[in-house]
Amino acid sequence: MKQTLVFGNIITMDEKRPFAKAVLVKDGKFAYIGDAETAKKLGGSDAEVLDYGEHFIYPGFLEAHAHGCFAGYRAVGQANLVKAGTVTDYPKYREIIKEFIADNPQREIYMASGWIQNDEYVTRSYLDEICPDKPLIMNSADAHSCLLNTKALEWAGIDAEYAKKYGYDLVHVDEKGEPDGNLCENPAFEIIHKVPVTIGEAKVYILAWQDYALAHGITATAFAGDDLRFPESPAYHELEEEGKLKLRTYANVIIPDNPEDPKAEIARVAAERAEYSKEYYRIIGAKVLLDGVVEAHTGWLLKDYIDEPGYHGAERFNDHDKMVELIVEADREGLSIHAHSVGDGATHFMLDCIEDAEKITGDMDQRNILAHLQYVTDEDIRRVAATGTIPAVPPLWSPKEPGVYEQEVSYVGRELADLAYPVRSFYDAGANVVFHSDYPVSPVMDITRSIYMALTRALPEKETGGMATQRNPAETITREQALRAMTINVARQFRQEHRMGSIEFGKLANMTVYDSDFLHDDIEKVARARLIATIVDGEVVYKA
Q: Over the range 255-275, which residues count as b (16 or more CB within 10 Å of their CB) and which as e?
């Protein structure tokens, strides 16, 4: 039996024993939490010792909503436009893509991701100039839009009839009625799905993502439904069989919008769960997309966009009866529904469906998740808590990001924009709040930054030159609440609160070590904290 002694300033997130100086790990689980002398006696002379001195040890941090395989793909499988100094820098984007094409001449199709639109409207000719002979697709940073060159339009069969079928809000056309290369929502997702990825390639992307997550203090993560294009489940299964997985993944299989047979869709998810779920990769739910994103005018609002009167966004999954059936069938299979919901209209619709489903199931603990929640009415904040729905909120998005905030105001108005991304209100209502980064759709996954922004609702001053970026300070929360939203609360989302999320006897020995006390240090010091180590099952899997 392998034994490991770990020493340091331990913050357990266990209300009965919040602090300790040592833990003893036996076969990957906590066997003792308490003082150093007792731990040494119990461990004996043969125990491995990890002494972190005055550093601070936390339960392994958990990510509530991310896109792992997609993250690895962006890192090693395509031209990555999210680089320093290239945000909305269109000429620089083309240089990055040209360099990637030159380095990968064997590819038949080229992909680039991380495109952040500015006020300049570009069409297929923007990409034709650098890649006239092969399909090239430039995916937006939020993954809800893309730009195709002419060869990509031809390859995908996107023509005037296709545009007419989906509507010109989703497939943009030129003055002749021909697609100009800009797609969003369903058409954009369909295009990404058509780009072939093998299981072998997916395994490379998953391992790249695993390295990244562990190097950022994450020990387990939600998988928010990327299998529109990647063969994740079989790839994860093979990697687990090969003993290569360290990062635990709790997956949600994506469901198409308004499916013809919701019961059959849940049966498909359950079958995939039975085939692929093991220890390090488990399917726990189904993913639905209710709407899009505000920056593409596809977030589903209760009121119209102020710059587009008569239009309130894209209602992606909007069939009430089918959603109720989906929730009920998922409950019967012990699954949750993980919903992308940006606009207040989408959230209101989903809560209506959850309430009606709960009248049928009587289950107030299905742990359905609403992710993103940019705008939510006070009434619906209360309904989130009352229905046992889990709000997955992004503190990283809460400040007034220069440029992005002004764009938001021009679309929805200052009053609504200033109320975006509530957090404290969900806590006050009694909800099980969890934090997410949405990495790599959001370009940052950072524990210390999430804490900083949850407590300040602002960007660090050093990044803004003193510019005011705080948004709605009434939604700031406490340090302990922030830590819970990245540890024990997420474990509850995964239905793993008995195994992870706090440092307690019998739980998995997952820990993250930093050089800062997140509960007491000055908040500016917290923002600069350095990760020392990540520990999974008692083994050091990342060391700074």
A: bebbbeebeebbeebbebbee
Give the per-residue pLDDT at 95.
Answer: 92
Measured in whole angstroms, the distance separating CA 481 from the mean position of its chain's CA atoms is: 19
Q: Could you give the CA distance from residue 90 to residue 80 in angstroms, rounded to a whole number?
A: 13
Best CA proximity match to 23, nearest among 525, 516, 511, 542? 511
> For 203-216, how does the pLDDT look when each residue is reduced to its tens digit (9 = 90+)?
999 999 999 999 99
489, 434 contact by CB (below 8 A): yes
Peptide bond into 262 cis (omega under 30): no
H or E element in which residue 320 lies: helix 320-332
372-397 pLDDT, tens digit per residue, is 999 999 999 999 999 999 999 999 99
Instruction: Give exposure, 344-372, as e/b (b: 16+ Cβ within 10 Å).
Output: bbbbbbbbebbeebbeeeebeebbbbbbb
**Intra-chain end-to-end CA distance of the chain, in Å:** 28
- Strand 390-393, strand 145-148: pairing: unpaired
Pick out the chain residues at pLDDT < 70. Answer: 83-87, 226-229, 465-466
| Burial of 530 per CB tally in 10 Å (0-12, 13-18, 19+) | exposed
Q: Tell me which amino acid residue 191 is.
A: I
- Which is nearest to 234 in space by CA: 209, 253, 256, 261? 253
264 vs 171: CA distance, rounded Å: 30
Whether the predicted model's global pTM rises above the 0.85 cut: yes
Strand 369-372 with 390-393, pairing = parallel
Q: Which residue has the tokens 């090969």?
A: 242
The DSSP H or E segment spanning 247 is none
